[in-house]
């Protein structure tokens, strides 16, 4: 999408400009490090790229460049270089979204919320339409929007880059009562997508772990967590057995025998947790 077509470039008085009513990103706090860095850059090098605005009945509205605008206003500039374009709400939103995607300045949750607004809240088009407008595949847009199914604590880990988008997507179809345990295990042990899928496969829909846990029954919940922890350990042992096939042949048989012995013990412990749960309840 071309941003500068048919635009007029000129300095506009800052007091005549207001933020967009259709923001695609969170506003920066006045004391944020990102804003401080941007101010420092503009102070030293000037504003290298004008912001994009559109005319309103009284003044102008920002289309793209909200953070540059905030930095310049904090620096007490009176005028700011602007590209002025006459745009509809829909077109303005698409430009704002496209610019942020091209700059890679949005975190995955900001992206997901922006796509959700476009498709569902504003009703400007479907996932396929949006993908074509911003130069992304339908699958890409759809996957980002699926992140909004996750609890807030999981979203925070995505924002802070403790959890990748690929890892997070594996959690969207897991029972809600198990998500926290899965997330902790993934983050603490830096599990690969393959390892996560093995974990999920070991937790079948018929398992006792997939029933919702009452807040009043914390003891049973501990048993379920124990079962989950053991199944996670089992999946790791399976990975180690696979790795053992690549070691020296002289040690391979002994190592595989040792690992398979551990595997049997873990299976026995899983059986014990199931029996304990039945007796306890």
Overview of the molecule:
The structure is a single chain. With 281 residues, the chain is an alpha/beta fold. The protein has two domains: 1-103, Conserved hypothetical protein from pyrococcus furiosus pfu- 392566-001, ParB domain; 184-280. It is 57% helix and 9% strand. It is built from twelve helices and five strands. The protein has a five-stranded mixed β-sheet with strand order 1-5-3-4-2. Strand 3 (51-55) and strand 4 (60-64) form a beta hairpin. The longest helix has 32 residues, at 249-280. The N and C termini lie far apart (61 Å). Residues 205-216 have low confidence and may be disordered.
Features:
12 helices; 9% strand; 281 residues; Conserved hypothetical protein from pyrococcus furiosus pfu- 392566-001, ParB domain; 5-stranded mixed beta sheet; single chain; 2 domains
H-E order: EEHEEHEHHHHHHHHHH
DSSP helical segment count: 12
Radius of gyration: 26 Å
CATH C-level class of the largest domain: Alpha Beta
Overall, the morphology is elongated
SSE class: alpha/beta
Q: Which consecutive residue ranges, at least 5 long each, have pLDDT under 50?
A: 205-216
Spatial strand order of the main sheet: 1-5-3-4-2
